[in-house]
Amino acid sequence: MLMSLLVVGSVGIDTIETPFGRVENVLGGSATYIAAAASFFVTPVRLVAVVGDDFKREHIDFLESRDIDLEGLQIVKNGKTFRWGGRYRYDLNARDSLFTELNVFEHFNPIIPEAYRKSTYVCLGNIDPVLQRRVLEQIEKPRLVIGDTMDFWIKRKNAELNETLKLMDVLVINEAEARLLTNEPNLVKAARMIIHIGPKIVVIKKGEHGALLVTERTIFSAPAYPLEIINDPTGAGDAFAGGFIGWIAKSDDLSDDNIKRAVIYGSTLASFCVERFSLDRLKDLTHLEIHDRFREFRELSKFDEEVVVQ
Length: 310
Ligand code: AMP
Description:
- The chain has helices at 30-38, 57-65, 129-137, 151-156, 158-165, 175-182, 187-197, 236-251, 256-273, 280-283, 287-300, and strands spanning 5-8, 12-18, 21-28, 45-52, 68-76, 82-88, 95-101, 121-124, 144-148, 170-174, 201-205, 211-215, 219-222.
- The strands form two sheets. A nine-stranded mixed beta sheet has the order 5-4-1-8-9-10-11-12-13, sandwiched between helices. A four-stranded mixed beta sheet has the order 3-2-6-7.
- Helix content is 36%, strand content 25%.
- The protein is of the alpha/beta class.
- The mean pLDDT is 95.
- The protein has a single domain (5-300), classed as UDP-N-acetylmuramoyl-L-alanine:D-glutamate ligase.
């Protein structure tokens, strides 16, 4: 059977400041990064999102060039696309949201096209948890639902988010958000608390410190790729989710070993994403580069047991 992947989330326009530069009105959005990253593994990725008619043709062209199916992309007449501004300081793990203009997102009703309703894998990018749930109500028995969220929703829609979590199989979340969601500083304990709510697999992203995978049976710690050039951490978490779910959808294997592999593919895509601003690095990324970096990840933490010489 051919596997299919549906991605729902934000598609937007970002303004980003990092110690290495500033870009204005560039392509962004959670679903954009997820779909672009996943498109290196499965095509066409099905995208459901909303933009206004101010959304530039060049962005549509880029999404199409990645073989992303845009049947589910709503374009609102006279509408303004979602806009977000963020600033990073020297600690690239911490950022301030400068503004969040929901615009067309405020009245977004995610309508899943008929052709997408039997999607095998579903990735719920960071949007209102109420909308995430509305998406799931329209899908017929997906094999795996993976979701993301952020502090914005944890603070504003906590009860709704808890309801949505019960419907997710995998939660991908960053460390600050995991602590905020559970009120628990220890990440292993926090992951276990999330497992107790619903998702049986929790991946906690720790920025430049890698990612922690916790399931009922295993704990796996993946390093981050030690990059010397990082320009813009925006979208790293989403690129991670895209690489992770892209690999799982391609391999259609939910064994623990394969989920660990998916964590490394997620880390690989995230590591490329941050090399340049916006989605620029994903524009010329090749399968060979992904393959090579995946292998480098293996070398990074491979070691032998001590040989005791008698
Ligand atoms: P990440 O760096 O992986 O957390 O994702 C950054 C992307 O999320 C940016 O490109 C933003 O456009 C988008 N974003 C920021 N805030 C929100 C929000 N409240 N809802 C949906 N998407 C958002």
